[in-house]
């Protein structure tokens, strides 16, 4: 899919590209985040009365604190969760930060806008904690698939669950960034941060099995692909194309359906963090998840009610 075109047509009046806070904000984001924030800002503009205006022509630098307060109120009335409200407010703040950097608004105006808070509160997560027995069932389901998808999907699930990385990080993995001896993978994480992820031996065994199959399918003399996971078309044809985030979503849903469980890709990360908290401590989990705030790590704790009830039951007189 072609990247969105953020260039302003020359026949459209208004701020130039270099002076447009929206374009400057979007340019700073990673491609996956850019598409999400573009959608969020388009929806925010619609709710603020700019439904008939191209998002690039919205006069973001003229917004007042009252506009942000109105946006938060409308989102609350429409039943949006607090986390979603925060996403919208942070997106607008990002544009306003650029407006200040471009000298389109004063620092006082920026501070007033930043003082408006999103809806307070939290919601219980919809994810699940995937037990080790379920991961083994997923591995068995992949092993029973004679197509190349079997080995590839097993490797994808093993890396997601074994390292706790995000699906966006997994699709961008490159072969050159894998250290087989140390069982480590160098990935580009959120915020354009370069991270080192470690995986257990069994996960690397699954990865090696997939890579060996992929190499065996290459015509003689052709070099191996530079990335880890390939798209596979019907007819079990391994393409020379990198897998997509949508394919990761499909793998999780399809393999989960085979074992009778609805699984989302982020469940593997949730389960990894929960298991580290369970078997080690919150501090170690924070480091392995590469979270800046330990409260973010704590929010990933998906231990079920029975485990919490057992913990309370230990407080006998």
Mean pLDDT across all residues, rounded? 87
Structural class, judged by helices and strands?
A: mainly alpha
Biggest sheet, in brief? Answer: 3 strands, antiparallel
Beginning-to-end CA distance, first to last residue: 63 Å
Helix-residue proportion:
40-55%
Order of helices and strands: HHHHHHHHEEEHEEHHHHH
Rg over CA atoms, rounded to whole Å, is 23 Å
Give the strand line-up of the largest sheet. 1-2-3
Which band does the percent of strand residues land in? 5-15%
Unreliable parts: 1-13
The number of helical segments is: 14
Describe this entry's structure for a reader.
- The chain is mainly α.
- It has helices at residues 21-27, 31-47, 65-77, 82-101, 107-114, 132-143, 148-163, 167-171, 201-216, 245-258, 266-279, 282-289, 294-298, 305-313, and strands spanning 178-179, 184-189, 193-198, 230-233, 237-242.
- A hairpin with a 3-residue loop joins strand 4 and strand 5 (237-242).
- Helix 2 crosses helix 4 (82-101) and helix 4 runs antiparallel to helix 5 (107-114).
- The longest helix has 20 residues, at 82-101.
- 29% of the residues are buried.
């Amino acid at each position: 899919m072609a990247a969105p075109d953020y260039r302003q047509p020359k026949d459209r009046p208004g701020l130039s590209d270099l002076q447009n806070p929206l374009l400057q904000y979007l340019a700073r984001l990673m491609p996956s985040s850019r598409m999400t924030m573009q959608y969020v800002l388009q929806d925010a503009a619609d709710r603020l009365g700019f439904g008939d205006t191209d998002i690039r022509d919205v006069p973001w630098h003229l917004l007042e604190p009252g506009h942000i307060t109105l946006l938060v109120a409308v989102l609350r009335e429409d039943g949006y969760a607090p986390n979603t409200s925060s996403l919208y407010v942070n997106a607008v703040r990002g544009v306003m930060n650029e407006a200040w950097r471009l000298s389109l608004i004063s620092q006082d105006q920026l501070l007033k806008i930043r003082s408006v808070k999103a809806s307070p509160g939290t919601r219980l997560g919809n994810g699940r904690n995937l037990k080790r027995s379920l991961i083994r069932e997923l591995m068995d389901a992949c092993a029973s698939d004679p197509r190349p998808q079997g080995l590839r999907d097993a490797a994808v699930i093993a890396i997601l669950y074994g390292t706790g990385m995000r699906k966006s990080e997994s699709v961008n993995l490159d072969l050159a960034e894998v250290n087989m001896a140390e069982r480590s993978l160098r990935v580009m994480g959120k915020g354009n941060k370069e991270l080192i992820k470690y995986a257990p031996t069994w996960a690397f065994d699954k990865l090696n099995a997939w890579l060996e199959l992929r190499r065996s399918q290459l015509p003689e003399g052709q070099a191996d692909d530079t990335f880890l996971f390939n798209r596979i078309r019907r007819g079990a044809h391994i393409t020379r194309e990198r897998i997509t985030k949508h394919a990761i979503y499909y793998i999780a849903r399809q393999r989960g359906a085979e074992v009778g469980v609805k699984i989302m890709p982020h469940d593997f990360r949730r389960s990894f963090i929960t298991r580290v908290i369970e078997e080690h401590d919150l501090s170690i989990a924070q480091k392995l998840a590469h979270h800046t705030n330990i409260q973010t790590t704590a929010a990933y704790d998906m231990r079920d009610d029975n485990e919490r009830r057992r913990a309370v039951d230990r407080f006998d007189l």
